[in-house]
Amino acid sequence: MHAPMSRFLADQRGGGTILGLLWFMLLVGITGMAVDVTDGFRNRTMLQATADSAALAGAIDLPDQAAAVATAVAYATENMGTEINGSVLDPADVLVGLWDGATQSLDTTSAFPDAVMVTVHRSAENANALPVNFLRIMGLQSWNVTAQAVAQRFIPGCLRDGLVAREFVDMSSNNGFVREICIHGEQGVNIQSNNYFETGVNVTMPDVDGMLELPASGMTSNIGLPKALRENHLDPRMVNHIDEIMLDMIGRTSSVMPNYTHAELPVFEVDEKFDLSTALPGRIYHVLCKPNKAARIPNNSVVENVVIIAECEVHIGAGATVIGSVIASRSGGNGNIDKANIVIAANVQLGLPDNCAEGGGVQLFSNATIHTAASTSIDGVQMVAKGDIKLGARDMGVNGISAQSGGTITLTSNNMFGLCSGGAPDLFTVDYYRLVL
User: Fold this and answer.
1) Which residues 6+ apart lie within 8 Å of 372 measured at CB?
2) Which of 164, 265, 356, 372 could form a disulfide with 420 if both were Cys (CB 3.0 to 4.6 A apart)?
3) Helix and strand numbers, DSSP H then E, in the chain
4) Is 27 in a helix, a strand, or coil?
């Protein structure tokens, strides 16, 4: 072999270059995984937050489907601007329909939509794929990143048949709770002995260990309570809308005006001397009484399908019957919410005993406290008070009640709750929203 060829074959200079290139490629790959993958997860998180907010914003506009789609797209664009991200949400990727929690599916053919599904993209198909940096050297040019969310408009079951207090629910002895009725105290629930909780009943508060008060006998004297306890936050938001509802009714601008009222009739202004037992069905009565006076529904009288909004206390006399009506008191709106301004005497019938069929329900709105005496019959009644709600003892059951209190709900003895199928009818409601996917 010639000497030059021998020297060439024996020369090892530059031999590390190949190994160096291999290490370089490995280093770039590791760096790419660290930088580009992290950036991909960061954008995935941003897309999920955008999907969540867009779906919730769209759900607020339901049942107007066009508005829901437009709002969702606008929120997505606001959250992730097009200059950097392109268009992450097209109108075609916003679906509106009825959400089925059991199957986790959306029925887009429903005439009663309650949910908005949003799918946001940074993808090649959407012409805005997420570019990579270091991984380009390995042949990867971009990531396809997608996120999805479904927001649902709903009314918590507690607000259909239940007792919800912004402060406490204070429960005396010998009460029974059946079906799926709910008891919620945002600051806690105080329970005395010998109460019964059927399977399906929920007793909720944010912190069971710290907010549940029991008698010395503890759980043993309250059958079914351990299975009923849950931790949950729930604000009685209707309390915030009492003034709005009353003023809208006086001005006849409420979107929830009862269907039994006659739109062609004016609001009838009367004073506290007016005999409310003569109130005619379909009319709205605005009682312009002095704060130290009271509007009265006389003993043993019948009031049906009327709206009564008083600037003073409202007293419902013993043995009276109130059916399919709204009774409201604006007294106490200056901060004196501890005073009972809707006072219901003994043996009053509120609502129709018709197993909570539509129509016949009664709505009570108070700027202070609602107080029912013993033996009041409650059949499909909504009570909303800025202050407390006090329910007197009764030997009969409570057939459908939706009570929301800005203070405490007090239950005395010998009540049976949850007897009505489906909860109180004819509710004035405020929508709640949640992410279900």
Assistant:
1) 344, 348, 378, 390, 391, 392
2) 356
3) 8, 34
4) helix
CB atoms within 10 A of CB 299: 14
CB–CB of 94/73 below 8 Å? Answer: yes
Neighbours of 125 (CB within 10 A): 9
Q: What is the pTM of this model?
A: 0.81
Please state, in angstroms and rounded to a whole number, the distance separating the CA atoms of residues 163 and 367: 18
Residues pairing with 378 in the sheet: 350, 398
Enter the tokens of residue 129.
């794929």
Question: What letter represents residue 71's amino acid?
Answer: T
Task: Give the residue among 282, 276, 286 at the shortest CA–CA distance from 249.
Answer: 286
pLDDT at 426: 85
**DSSP letters spanning 95-117:** EEEEEETTTTEEETT-SS--EEE
Q: Kindly list the distances between the CA atom of residue 126 and the CA atoms of 13, 117, 121, 145, in Å, as whole numbers in the listed order.
A: 51, 18, 7, 10
Q: Give the closest residue to 201 by CA, choosing from 154, 156, 157.
A: 157
CA 127 to each of CA 90, 173, 216: distance values in angstroms, whole numbers, following the listed order: 12, 66, 67
Q: What is the dihedral of CA 50, 56, 58, 59, to 10 degrees?
A: 160
Under 8 Å between Cβ of 166 and 236: yes
What span, in angstroms and rounded, lies between the C-alpha atoms of 203 and 372? Answer: 23
Give one DSSP letter per residue of 123-142, joined into a string. Answer: STTTT--EE-SGGGGGT--E
Q: What is the pLDDT of residues 25-44, one digit of tens each?
A: 656 666 656 666 777 788 89
Per cent of the chain over pLDDT 90 is: 67
For 153-192, b/e burial (b = at least 16 CB within 10 A) is bbebebbbbbbbbbbbbbbbbebbbbbbbbbbbbebbbbb
Contacts of 430 (CB under 8 A, 6+ apart): 237, 238, 240, 241
Report the chain's terminal Cα–Cα distance, integer Å: 76
Contact 115, 107 (CB under 8 A): no
CB 137 within 8 A of CB 25: yes
Looking at 273-413, list the stretches that DSSP marks H as alpha helix, in order from N- to C-terminal side: none
